[in-house]
UniProtKB/TrEMBL annotation:
Record-annotated F-box domain positions: 124-161
Organism: Populus tomentosa (Chinese white poplar)
CC terms in the record's Gene Ontology section: cytoplasm
Pfam families from the UniProt entry: F-box-like (PF12937)
Cross-referenced InterPro entries: F-box_dom (IPR001810), F-box_LRR-repeat (IPR050648), Leu-rich_rpt_Cys-con_subtyp (IPR006553)
Transmembrane intervals: none
Biased composition (Low complexity): 54-79
Superkingdom of the source species: Eukaryota
Organism ancestry: Eukaryota, Viridiplantae, Streptophyta, Embryophyta, Tracheophyta
Region (Disordered): 1-23, 53-87
Protein name, per record: F-box domain-containing protein
Amino acid sequence: MHFENQPHIPPATPGGSTASFTSLDIPHHVKKHRGSYNCGRCGLPKKGHVCHLPPTSTTTTTPTQTPTDSSVSVSTSSSRPPPRQQYSNLRRALSFDDSDLRCDSPEVEIDESEMDLFGSGCGKLPVSCMWEIFRRLPPAGLLAAGSVCKGWRETARRLWRAAEELRLRVPPRSQPGFVGSVLQKCPGLSRLNLRLESDLDSTMFACIAFSCPNLEVIEISTSETAVNRITGDELGRFVADKRCLTSLKMEGCSNLGGFVLCSSSLSTLWLSDLYCLSKMVFNCPNLKEISLDFSRQENDSTDLIAMVDGLGRSCPRLQNVHVASVRLSHAAVLALTAANLRGLRMLSLVLGTEITDASVVAISQSYSKLELLDLSGSSISDSGIGMICNVFPGTLSRLLLALCPNITSSGIQFATAQLPLLELMDCGMTICDLSSQYPTSDESGDFELQTTFKNKLHLIYQKLIIKHSRLKKLSLWGCSGLDALYLNCPELIDLNLNSCKNLHPERVLLQCPSLESVHASGCHNLLIEGIQNQVSNNFAAMENQFPNKRLADGSKRVRVPQFLSQQPYDEDKKRRRIASRPCNVLVD
């Protein structure tokens, strides 16, 4: 018995999806069908025929997205949010959870009379199976499937038209019309995520604008070898033409030079790698979140004071503000506080070494309802932390103070004690070992330097004691000046101790029953073993959580159900205990 060779779809990438079909009842010498000419209900020829039989039940399919291992994928539903892109370098300093930007997609109706068309050339595979297979293919595989036969081409065409979100990787040697040929197949596309490994120029940008008239969300990330050549004028025209655009995120914006953005629909704006901007005009009355990440070059001539002043006057609805620049100063903070943004909830001013405790005073006087405050890389001290605790005890839940060398363990302990709603705290590189910053006497022989080092010995090794009922994430990466750590945080799930080289295993106590991950890269082996023993003991103790009681006759001890215990029992804690799993100590 001979069998017909079945079509094969090569994957677009090494991890791409493939589709193959097997059939055992198709002879080898069957003539190739170009389509069925008979009615699918009664079997009579279709030409001049009106079928008298009633149609059977209509098959309805709702396209949904299934994650694949390939670098490109198509999404056509909103049943669940997509996995976060690992390749994106855009910093999420403002929102630590993915925001759901999806909407329900319309169902795709497939008529019974079209089943013959879909089944031809593929072993009469049911249309529902064909749809499920095709929706799992990457874009390159779906393009290849559309060229196999008429039925496959029609299924692929319907799938392209139903797509609402597209995540596409553009290889370095792709043809100029590659992006346009893919986008033109998706007239209903509203969300676009591009990973560019080739340069982004005005031609590709115009192609995106022309092919996606109803675009709402666009995110463009670039690789290390790709160059973003978009200018400020081109970006301004793109934003002005897209009347439905609500979110714009773009990397590699070093060639903008200056821009004027006017949009009544834009609510989220992320621009990174900004450099030497001559002008920045924002006319976006509905803008709620903005993230401006400038380059780390010292010769950046951007006037941040004028930028912040104009931002406050033209965008009154701002809620989340993130600015990362080495040129941030106390004057820029004063310009921001003068804007009087009443709805501001998240403020992130990163890498501003000229931001001091006086800046904290200005922030606390103007914005008393902050939920997130990020002053990483600033020069604030424990006094500034005290002012933060006095103003935001009832609202602040996330505090990030990494790379602040003037902060000690006393300030960190005070913050955790005075902020009851705190859930996330980052104190990386705050308590550092000063001995690594000074050479030894054999190398220099400088008596004055030795005296300075001895005067600061009391700041080298510090202990940190934190007891908090709601803290979930704590980061102490690079705190080489810590030699003792005591944590009593029942809700803590993530602890970062990377490069805490001077912690002693016998001086580390972790009373954190919900702990799931401990990052200990760069720590010595004895500390890693001590942490592993503690977290394993905590997990074993949780297994034996029910009290024991003897039976009435005193024969043996049995576990008492929790509802018989006199202590109050929380249903949420019960669910967490049932779903608990051993803690992972991550070294690499």
